[in-house]
Amino acid sequence: MGEVINKSGKPLQVNPFKLSQPMGATLAFLGIDKCMPLMHGGQGCTSFTKVFYTRHFCEPIAIQTSAVTDAIAVLDGGDYSIVESVKNITKKVTPSLIGLHTTGLPETKGDDIRGVAGKVEFPLVYVNSPDYEGGLESGWALTCKALIEQLVEPSEQIDVKKIVILPHVSLQPIEVEKIKQTCEAFGFTTYALPDLSTSLDGHLGDKQAALSSGGISVEEIKHLGDATLVLSVGDSMQKCAAALLGKNSSMRHQHFSHLSGLEASDSLIELLMQESGIELPQTNIVRWRKRLQDAMLDSHFSLGQTRFLVVGEPDQLAGICQSLYEAGGRVAAAISSVDSLQLEKIRAAKVLVGDLEDAEKLADDYDLMIGNFHCEALAHRLGKGLVTRGFPNWEQVGNALKNDVLYEGGAYFLFECANAAEEWRTHKAS
Amino acid sequence: MSAKPKIRELLDESACEHNKSKKVACNAPTPGATTGGCAFEGAQISLFPYADAAHLVHGPMTCLGSSWETRATATSWQGRDFTQMGFTTDVSLNDVVFSGEKKLTDSIDYIMEHYAPEAIFVYSTCVTALIGDDLDLICKQAAEKYDVPMIPVHAPGFVGSKNLGSRLGGEAALRHLIGSKEPETTTPFDINLIGEYNVTGDMWQYSHLLDELGIRILSTLSGDGRVADIRTAHRAKLNVIVCAKSLISLTRKMQEQYDIPSISLSFYGKRDTSNGLLAIAEALGDAELIERTKKLIAREEAKLEEKLAPYKKVFAGKKAVLNTGGNKSWSIASALQDLGIEVVATAVKKATEADRVKAREYLGEEGVLMMNPGAEQAKLIDEKGAHLLLAGGRSLYTAIKKRIAFADVNQEKKKSYGGYNGLLNLAEDLKNALENPVFKLVSRRAPWEK
Fold first, then answer.
1. DSSP string across B190-242
2. Does residue B33 sit at the A interface (CB-CB below 8 Å)?
3. Which of B39, B90, B397 lies nearest to residue A13, judging by beta carbons?
4. Which domain covers residue A389, as residue numbers?
5. Does a structural domain hold residue B183?
6. Does any domain span residue A349?
7. CA 20 to 30 Å from B290, out of A114, A126, B247, B346?
8. Cβ within 8 Å, pair A108-B69
């Protein structure tokens, strides 16, 4: 691994791709069935978040705001606005859960949301997620931890056929589904927390935009404490795993920094073989491994002569960079939105916390960018190739179904990168 | 005197119709039952299109992180296009505790050193307003240091709605920019375009016609705008408000301070575009100009009609239900009628009294004004035999269920529907929607369903 710079030296962010902690919290609540995420803050935070995810997923997004105004901000400690919000929400719909999460405004004035939550007589999970700390990844993880701490019932039983996946925020709905299905292929009943694979996967159904539809149910969350195995994916999710293990000392935990590329996929399959006693995985898993091997060889020539810049969330960077590395892609620099222990492990010549202005300054070092929609204008201006990954991607459709994980996703990902690199080379030559 | 505008005053706008009819301005949002953006977003919308100025958001990450590069406000500015850039201080816990003023000052220095913009707009947000960072002082000091306008924009989200924020944006321009510079030349036909943001190049659909008529756009707030131009706005002969009620306070104050009259109009559809052009000419009050304008309108309408003819054949006998809000409830209806589509119903739930009157005017006695469109639209599609539903994305399922064509009214955020030529874009999109088999096919019964 290369040089790591954990802190930006600038006083500001210029063309940021960093996203806020409350937005990560919202998304986590959208992975719960019939949930109403309630963002505690000014109405704008909620409005921005709703539009943001609506455009990324092309789906209606359920969310409400406590609509704190300047006068309320001075006079109220959250008691009025939160209790009133719950009252008004439940007048119109009956969510299975209200997901209360804070923004910078109420945290600056010091609202005691835990105290207020105690007064609300409706199923509610609260999480402190000010946007002046952390980012998308930590907001999602904090929420997952809060869901576990406040909902999962302690247990002493173990269901030897049950697995719980704790996926990091950057895994798209289809990726969560593929990980679940892989575990199921070894005979395990598998749950993901949060689970976007059945809520924001983009499916035509009788949807009422008022609440999230699909995702793990509150009842299922309550009973996650008897799984034989907890699999955390992404370093941001380690604390969630610890919280879940706290509910039942007999549960076991296995951590994966990511599930991208041949090595990581192999280690998951190896684990599942051991756990299940199954010595030969299902035909399609075996077949996809061969296809990935072939994809690595087919794409290595192109990837081996391409220099990459990858921007995104720490856990996402770890996976993407490993996939590229295995087929010879040279990651000149990985730019992370926030600091994380994960940064030390990323396969890149240089890893830094920064923004897209930093990406611009590094322009001489790379040929192809991998990052969110904000990279598009930059790639165009600098004449770089582009593969779009991460939140948000407003210009393309089908984001929920982009699969980069395990054998199958890995193969598609390498093909897409190699093709983008060749297209860039042809374009540059002409 | 504080440089901060008085919110009460802005909410109690005497030029607003609802204040004449003694209705209370709706300001307090209901917790748990509120939609729509905040004041910060409104201010952003009204000022971000200045492409020669940097826009620095002093706040935590949500404010800018989710909102930059969201609006396709086209510009002809040849320098680095700041409308598609984001600058934020991204305040941290440390700043919340010990103040973010140093960070803000350093950020301004950084921007001046690396990007040298013509001005910097500095936006306060909930958190930085609450901790009391002194934007006025910092901007004043920076303006003296660099001899470049530094405009504090006091529209933190929690003071109110998007609409109020746009007013506050206008207020910032009035206090810090308008009247601070003299134009090099003036003409008798100088106008300001207020509230035209040139989203998807809407303004360019008609600006060349104004040009041809000899009407000069002295400045805009803020589509394809320049800071240097808006500083000279006090010398205009007329303020033209384009589809934006929120900036009525600004134009009233400009009338009081600089004696500039104002008119409000829209450039959506053929009739509105023609009416708009003529209204500007009439307000400028030059007989020859009015004559010229009438001739130009006749010519442009004829040209348009010729291009529309093949579409009108497709649209003959077609009926549409329109579910949108505000002035769109009648302006899109009018455009649809220009295309020969019968508008059988339009939603007026989120429209003002004046908008409802106008909607009734356009739709006639037979037309239905929907007060509860979510519930009514499906029924009306059946009753009226509508072929097309124009609405926000949420209503897509209604169209699929009813197996009729659907067009997203927000499509205009990607493509201009403004002016005469924009109507051709709208016609093309609606023709494609009507011809698309997807709305009938997609809801086909699955083989395993009975």
1. EEEEES---BTTTGGGTHHHHHHHT-EEEEEESTT--HHHHTTGGG-SEEEEE
2. yes
3. B90
4. 3-8+285-429
5. no
6. yes
7. B247
8. no
Q: Does the CB of B37 have a partner CB in chain A at under 8 Å?
A: yes
Q: Are residues B332 and B288 in the same domain?
A: no
In the block, tokens 């008691």 appear at: A79
**ipTM field:** 0.96
Is A151 within the bounds of a domain?
no
Closest residue to B85, CB basis, from A15, A19, A21:
A15
Q: Which domain holds residue B157?
A: 7-176
- Asked if the Cβ–Cβ distance from A87 to B32 is below 8 Å, we say yes
Cα B406 vs. chain centroid, distance in angstroms?
24
pLDDT on residue A412: 98
Q: Which residue has the tokens 């529907």?
A: B417
Domain with B46 in it: what CATH number? Answer: 3.40.50.1980
Instruction: Select the residue from B45, B62, B398 to test the A interface by mutation, using most A Cβ atoms within 10 A.
Output: B62
* Banded pLDDT at A206 (limits 50, 70, 90): low
**pLDDT tens-digit readout, A331-340:** 999 999 999 9
What CATH code is carried by the domain that includes residue B226? 3.40.50.12380
Q: In what order do the strands lie in the sheet with A252-256?
A: A189-192, A159-167, A227-233, A252-256
Optimal mutation site among A131, A381, A382, interface B, most CBs of chain B within 10 A: A131
Whether B29 sits inside 8 A of A374 (CB atoms) is no
The pLDDT score that the predictor gives to residue B111 is 98
% pLDDT > 90, chain B: 81
Instruction: Please count the structural domains in chain B.
Output: 3
CA distance linking residue A378 with residue B81, whole number of Å: 12
| pLDDT confidence of residue B129 | 97
Residues of A in contact with B33 (CB under 8 A): 64, 85, 88-89, 91-92
B439 touches A: beta carbon within 8 Å: no
Q: Are residues A266 and A296 in the same domain?
A: no
Q: Do B140 and B19 belong to one domain?
A: yes
Interchain pair B34, A103: CB under 8 A: no
Query: Domain boundary residue among A281, A316, A345?
Result: A281
Contacts of A32 (CB under 8 A, 6+ apart): A96, A97, A99, A147, A194, A195, A199, A212, A215, A216, A217, A218, A221
CATH number of residue A248's parent domain = 3.40.50.1980
pLDDT at B1 over 90: no
Judge if B250 and B227 occupy the same domain: yes
- Give A-chain residues touching B99 at CB under 8 angstroms: none
Are residues A357 and A14 in contact, defined by beta-carbon separation less than 8 angstroms?
Answer: yes
Average pLDDT of span B99-121: 98
Asked if residue B247 has pLDDT above 60, the reply is yes
Beta strands, E only, A119-215: 124-127, 159-167, 189-192
pLDDT tens digits along A25-79:
999 999 999 999 999 999 999 999 999 999 999 888 999 999 999 988 888 888 8
Say whether both A295 and A396 belong to one domain: yes
Q: What residue in B sits closest to A45 (Cα-Cα)?
A: B62
- Do A253 and A293 belong to one domain? no
Task: Please count the other Cβ atoms lying within 10 Å of the Cβ belonging to residue B374.
Answer: 14
Q: Give residue B322's identity as a one-letter amino acid code.
A: L
DSSP B122: E
Are the Cβ atoms of B32 and A68 closer than 8 angstroms? Answer: no
Q: Please judge whether A206 and B110 are an interchain contact, meaning their C-beta atoms are less than 8 angstroms apart.
A: no
Q: Are A320 and A314 within 8 A, CB to CB?
A: no
Q: What is residue B306's predicted lDDT score, i.e. its pLDDT?
A: 97
Report whether pLDDT(B224) > 80: yes
Kindly report, residue by residue over B314-336, the tens digit of the pLDDT: 999 999 999 988 888 898 999 99
The reply to whether A16 falls in a domain is no
Tell whether A146 is covered by a domain.
Answer: no
Roughly how many angstroms between the first and final C-alpha of chain A, as a whole number? 35
Which residues numbered 93-132 in B keep a CB inside 8 Å of some CB on A?
A: 93, 95-96, 103, 106-107, 109-111, 126-127, 129-131
User: Into how many domains does chain A fold?
Assistant: 3
Residue B1 lies in a domain: no
In this structure, are B356 and B217 located in the same domain?
no
